[in-house]
Amino acid sequence: MSLINIDDALKFMLKRAKIQPKTQIISIKNAINRVLAKDVISTINVPGFDNSAMDGYAISFDDENNKKQTSFEITNRITAGSNISELNLGCAARIFTGAPIPKGANVVVMQEECELINDKKFIKVKKPIIKNENIRPCGNDIKSGESILKKGTKLKPQDIALAASVGVNEIEVFNKIKIGTFFTGDELVEPGEALQEGKIYNSNYYSITALANNLNLEIINLGNIKDDFSSTCQAIEELSKKCDLIVTTGGVSVGEEDHIKPAIEKLGTLDLWSIRIKPGKPLAFGKINNCAFVGLPGNPVSAMVTFLIFVSPFIKKMQGIENHLNKSRKVKIDFNWNRKKFRTEFVRVRLNENDLATMYPKQGSDVLSSMVWADGLLEIPYDLTFKKGDMLNFYKLNDIM
Q: Distance from the CA of 257 to the CA of which of 33, 229, 327, 370 falls in 20 to 30 A?
């Protein structure tokens, strides 16, 4: 069976990612990492009035007829939250940051540039006066009717703060995607249990669950199931009725004990299998009923890498996130790649002080410590060689996770 290029496989999957159609109204207090289903429109100006950018003196300055005036009588004191007052021409008012600019004032001079004179009843300005300086005009940040947050935005703390700043307390978001998972393998043991000969701890459960939690998903986990065809079919069928997506690890190769692939072929359709990628060639993609399915390789690094490269963008599109593709940047490599490979490789690298990508010495798909050591994944295209100093795509782990 011929291998499918990574870009073609990802495009194929993304075309079949159904955006969550259901939405709900929630409080902005609970909106972190949720995805907006509707633009947020401001109904007010921000600020709602001209206000002072700093502590100082608001002045009604006659810049047409008396440009040389430098001393002004202090006739008012204005604090934040005060009612808007009025200032006569040629007078000054003590003013504080955020306080409303009085009617008639056309400049705020910072306090360090003023000197109190005549028993502190007047100020003398020690610099040239510039009209409108240090005044934040009404609507300077946001204008009424403006769209401040776009549909498809995954909400960050600053987005929530912006919504609150215009008085929005509830927003419409897409419902959480439901992801189902289970694990097969008679060799698997849960952390905390005694490790017998021939057994391994089930790290994939924790990596997939953690990656799903990072994406703010609702997880339905059936845990470890019996490693046979009947149990595998039963688990897939059960999850397909409850979930938007099923993600499993292992069992997608062609061995006698690999039951995932034949189970998908029996219950639904297997649309994609075997990708030109290392680690992670035996990746399966298909559909059961209305539920999408992704079967990841069983080796721990392969499972994480393929989740990040394929499943994460797929889920983000399902969530309604506009910018769902992984972002990369070019970095220089500090090693030679002398041998052409048949598959595109994602090697674990760390950037040194010169921003050169250094490769972890052990790149096996079982070497989970490489994912902890690495800053990111370096994409090495297949059938090419490279030398030290060449530029390649780098995916920062903190970003794509």
A: 370
